């Protein structure tokens, strides 16, 4: 069952205080690990979200510093605390708490290990990050200054080989502008089970299966606003053999949205072929998504898929669309002049899966006036990116995206635009 937010907040604060140990307890500590990372990002955006967002031109810097302490007690227990400071410069308007959070607790948990049947079982309680599979449905949300975290409990049981099982019950943390004021949401509860890295009979292929539950108050879709209680069951097949690699995932959702039934689905793929014998070792890739939308408003059934807590940005660094009511096709090519240097070029076409449903802007906002239009074509984007692992601790990245709206958005003011970002990430 979902946990009460007051209890989760109290446990998180207690864990943070517990790391300030008195002198007589210091001899219990076998190892104290300290570290962190610093990220600096420059972003320039013209007509963001196909011109449907404001301001129309935004040039800004994002500054992020994370510091952590990992205290080990023997070989079975640990306490982990991570602080985050996210600030902005040049932001047009008032930045959200995910971008401007002066100083707060990103993670603060206690963890202990048991070995039933000789297999490690780790139990964790407190504030923590979650990421499963390909991060299509549960991710840390790396794009903004403040990564996504949850308050709650989690158990991870490592089984034979790399196979492992996770069970969790948490509430998402809502970053707020200010210092030490982030709180877990009393309007959302998230729970589930995820079985990862299951061996299959096919060489080079492994599988994940999962169940994810969500309870969300006052959820909004083109069909209106209501209480959302949604259940997701899904599976992922992934692997590599020779020059080919693949990653396929499908999920089905059911539950209730107010008095309506939820019936939604998604199918996603990311496959490629690496021609290692050719210059620059090109990988020819193809990404594709089919994500359901609502076929008829007010019919007692909601067909819009909810991607829950996905990686953001999702389709490109420009973050032009949320993964709801979408058909997506993205052929791309990646070249590697050196082992530490990569470049990627891709084209991305976007269509509405259901014409009657709306276009959803990030994170999951139905854009007024986009439901029921004659065209499904949302638009397209060209993506160019590069990454350089300068050292083991320093990474540099760049992304450029040019996007153009289709007929489904031009009628509500959609405009062509551009996005550029430059990132330097240092770990220490």
Automatic annotation (TrEMBL):
<feature type="signal peptide">
    <location>
        <begin position="1"/>
        <end position="25"/>
    </location>
</feature>
<dbReference type="Pfam" id="PF13372">
    <property type="entry name" value="Alginate_exp"/>
</dbReference>
<dbReference type="InterPro" id="IPR053728">
    <property type="entry name" value="Alginate_Permeability_Chnl"/>
</dbReference>
<protein>
    <submittedName>
        <fullName>Alginate export family protein</fullName>
    </submittedName>
</protein>
<keyword id="KW-0732">Signal</keyword>
<feature type="domain" description="Alginate export">
    <location>
        <begin position="32"/>
        <end position="420"/>
    </location>
</feature>
<dbReference type="InterPro" id="IPR025388">
    <property type="entry name" value="Alginate_export_dom"/>
</dbReference>
